[in-house]
Specification:
There is one protein chain. The chain is α/β, with parallel strands linked by helices. Strands 2-1-3-4 form a 4-stranded parallel β-sheet. It has helices spanning about 15-25, 50-55, 60-75, 95-105, and strands at about 5-10, 30-35, 55-60, 80-85. The protein is built from 4 helices and 4 strands; from the N terminus they run βαβαβαβα. The longest helix has 15 residues, at about 60-75.
Length: about 110
């Protein structure tokens, strides 16, 4: 049986960017996908459990990478942490956001057209 690759998407509040990513990559190529936010007000807040669970962590901005490293440095040592450089300019399921997510994420994993 093929091992599912676990993708974890992180933004600030887990309302728009990471949630959109979770929705569009869920079920593609058998990926297991979750998302969370780095802020206290996040819909789902990042925990060490999330970080431990993930194979690849996609952060939307450099500040998210910094926050993850500040909080979960030891857990991140064996993880692939990638910054997608996607600013907080999009609403949930925005067409431009979906296009950017697919383009940036496909540089790291297999994403069908």
């Amino acid at each position: 049986m093929v091992k599912k690759i676990k993708l974890f998407f992180v933004c600030s509040r887990n309302k728009w960017r990471s949630l959109t990513a979770e929705k569009i990559f869920h079920g593609i190529n058998n990926y297991d996908v979750r998302s969370a936010g780095t802020e206290d007000s996040a819909r789902i807040k990042v925990t060490s459990g999330h970080v431990g669970w993930a194979d690849i962590i996609f952060a939307m901005e450099k500040k998210h990478v910094r926050r993850l490293r500040d909080k979960f440095n030891n857990e991140l040592l064996s993880k692939k942490l990638i910054c997608l450089d996607i600013p907080d300019d999009y609403q949930y399921m925005d067409e431009d956001l979906i296009e950017i997510l697919k383009a940036r994420v496909s540089e790291h994993i297999d994403v069908p057209e």
